[in-house]
Specification:
4-stranded antiparallel beta sheet, elongated
């Protein structure tokens, strides 16, 4: 685990808000440090693996893929991690969440524009060795930055 201080938490919070459109200069204006200090902190967070990439937020519906299906699955506990990795490699699967429980321990999110593909995805998940507990069409997903970083930051102005 990385040893983070208040400034690191502030930088993380600001990156979560809008990493694409927020420059180190913008961050420095909201923090009591220089833009170079912000750049150094970002480099350090990346080197430590705390910041492990920058993911675009894709609106699949607007991109022509209106069907988002959430599969709640059960994997044998001893195979859970391997099955999660295998599920993520399936066509149309965009994310897999792993839970520390004996049942309903994987959530698989798939995206498609074809209702027939839902059956194909289901069959592939079962072929991997997963038990599908439920399938649900996802209507909406909302996210926000983790506010725990802001609570630990030195006067980062939050909107």
């Amino acid at each position: 685990m990385a040893d983070l201080d208040e400034l690191d938490f502030a930088v993380l919070y600001l990156l979560q808000e809008d990493a694409r459109n927020t420059t180190p200069v913008d961050m420095a204006e909201r923090l009591p440090v220089s833009a170079q200090t912000v750049r150094n902190r970002i480099d350090g967070l990346e080197a430590a693996g705390v910041v492990d990439g920058y993911e675009p937020v894709v609106d699949y519906r607007r991109a022509g893929f209106p069907l988002r299906i959430s599969f709640t699955c059960t994997a044998p506990v001893e195979r859970r991690a391997d099955l999660a990795d295998s599920a993520l490699e399936l066509p149309r699967v965009v994310s897999v969440d792993e839970f520390l429980s004996a049942s309903e321990n994987l959530r698989v999110l798939a995206v498609t524009d074809d209702s027939e593909a839902i059956t194909d995805i289901s069959e592939r998940l079962v072929d991997l060795g997963l038990t599908i507990e439920s399938e649900r069409l996802l209507r909406r997903r909302a996210v926000r930055p983790y506010d725990g970083f802001a609570e630990r930051s030195p006067s980062a102005e939050t909107d």
